[in-house]
Amino acid sequence: MPKRCVIVNPKAGSIKGVESELFAQIDRLDPAEIKKTHGNGEAESLARAGVANGCDEIICAGGDGTLNEIINGVAENFGRVQIGIVPLGTGNDFVRSLGTPTTIPEAVDVLLAGETDTVDVIRAKSDQMRYFVNVSAGGFSGLVDEKLTPEMKKTWGPLAYLRSAAAAWPELRGYETFVDIDDERVDETLYNVVIANARYVAGGLPIAPEADMRDGEMDVVLVKARPVTEMMVVGAQMLAGKHLDSSAVIFERAKRVRVESTPGMWFNADGELIGNEPVTFEVMPRALKFVVKRDESK
User: Fold this and answer.
1) What is the dotted CATH code of the domain comprising 4-114?
2) What is the pLDDT of residues 220-260, one digit of tens each?
3) For domain 129-284, which architecture applies?
């Protein structure tokens, strides 16, 4: 049995009204250390401390942002820890790709069953080094994350992403961008750069509908600057996951990507802002082990 540390974000987007059920279900994981976060960045330090205390399974009871902090907290120990998830966020985008159940009892059942699988991790180096497992986006998406406040998430729930996009829309602009995709250079005026390990953002938008987090490559989605009417069509295609064939979109797969733009794009990693300096992304193939739902087809 793994030595478990459960990190709970009591401000996670969908935790309201289920606190009693959550802790009753977590009790099924006994013995386990239970730690609560009280602010941004604390999940990272708690995960780091859990590993230092001998925990070899760190469980995220929170959303995508909490998970991102935990992954960065265990970054120096990817090879010896595994990550479990009880999804409690506003979007829960990574677990959509991972296949983790979204109800608390079912998620805990998965943790108790103990099946694991390894997935790719992407390392992003800008004005700081960060690791992520879902999606990083720069340009307009970075502006959307900049506008996305905790109050907006609390008030709007899953619609908060659309609300913040509406707030950012007047600031939409093109970025003169160089993107080095392995050995190929793209020189374009872009609205958006998306580096995807998994498929979904913004509460289920299939931004990289063909992404496979176990293939050792990133899915790179570049959105060209085009007239507003054309961008409205592209937006509708994105909602259906049909945008990769659009003439306004460049789609590639790569192991290494470098992005430099004027002005500098603000990039996020799994929703957490990482800076607006030139950024390099590199895949770490099958670097991190997750507790996953048993594959009944095997």
Assistant:
1) 3.40.50.10330
2) 999 999 887 887 788 788 888 999 999 999 999 999 999 99
3) Sandwich (2.60)
